[in-house]
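User: We ran a pulldown and think these components assemble together. Before we commit to crystallization trials, I'd like a predicted model of the whole complex to look at. Sequences follow.
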Amino acid sequence: MIRRPKHELPVIPTANLVDIAILLIIFYMACSNFLPSSNARMTPPKAKDLSKMQEPLVVVTIDKDGVVQLQGHDVGGAADIESAIGELVRDKTSDDARTVMFKCDAGVSREVFQPVLDAIVQAGGLILAVGENIEK
Amino acid sequence: MRKRFHLRQLNQDAIPTTSLADMMFLLLIFFIMTTTLAKTTGFVTDIPSGAKGQQDTQDKTPTIALHDDKITVNDTDNMDMVQLRQYVARLRLDQRKGDGKVVIVAASGHVSYQAYYETLAMIQNAGGVVAIESEEDHK
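Assistant: Here's a predicted model for the assembly, 275 residues in total across the polymer chains.
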């Protein structure tokens, strides 16, 4: 009778795996920004020489159907936008705090976007108009 | 026998961390799926309000009017986007000071946001200050 030697299964060391995973999570948490406007369907306008900007806290979006949203929630019209943004930027002195990100579909017509722009201006906000760079 | 084994396990000092890796990877997958690493591109503009009223006293302020099928400058010249770019470059807005930098942009009809945005970006990049003609100014 031949006795076969017992082979132990190789053990993969997984103790450091958690550390690596935690580091990756910290990286992604630091890089993440949960924009409330991310669900709006739109084609951004294109222009030349746009620069990279830091994203402000207040976001106004107009999707391709002309639906106006503030912080991801539907708003009735320009008057609502003006009062809501007025509340948000009131007592803010720095330009960064007063900046409102304006994301609008490229195909939306003037009747929809201009009252919203006027409302942001009247409320005392600076407009960060978001677009895409045209490839050179 | 089974109970004795269980007690022996409880006596160990080590914190059980076997499921920690699973939780970490679930969180990791969540953050990978939701993260957008793309930077926002655009321009910041501090649009002066009531600019049309100021224009009445400052006749030299250039006014770009966007219509459905044409672009006019100071109510006269018909231009396309290329000609408008050349016109804005000729204004040398970056070398001007104060109110001299102001360019009024007006839109009428069903002008798309694309045309409007391109015009604003053009003025902004040239060193100018955009003033929009608001709805009240049309009336």
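The mean pLDDT of chain A is 83. That may be worth checking against your pulldown data before setting up trials.

User: Thanks, that helps.
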